[in-house]
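Milestone M4 deliverable, item 7.
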Amino acid sequence: MEPGLFDIPADLTPLLAAGLPEITGTYVVQLASRALHILSAIILVGGLFYLRTVLSPAGAEACFAGRRHVWARWVGISTGLLVASGTYNLLVIMNQTRAEESKLPGAYLTILLIKFLLALLVMFIAAILAGKTEAADRFRTQIGKWLNIAWLAAVGIVVLAAMLRTFHQ
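Output delivered:
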């Protein structure tokens, strides 16, 4: 029988040794930063998706059921973590590129800028909808529209992030 693509070798040692990263303090910090970045995005975008698909059809007041301040707190926490971890992750990528004496292509920086601007839009919409100002009240009168815009921007961010990931593998 010929070996196939999914045949498992009898001795997995070389396979495992080749794929495991060196566990250092730097690696753990980088891993934690990426995990915090993804978890924060899940909280923010998942919350917006839930608001749009489940709660907003009942109206802006029903969305928060008197608990807008709880959502506002999570918007603030996730936004802060996204900005901090995203900045750190970018610095890591830039330092790795510098250490390899290569340069990030112009397309990478362009895509990153677009992703960053879309992220600012999502964070702004989440914050203004959770806010307690007159402007926030005006935004909430069209909550469905703003949640649709935020969700569309979030989908764009995911696509752009996938594109960026292919640049430094």
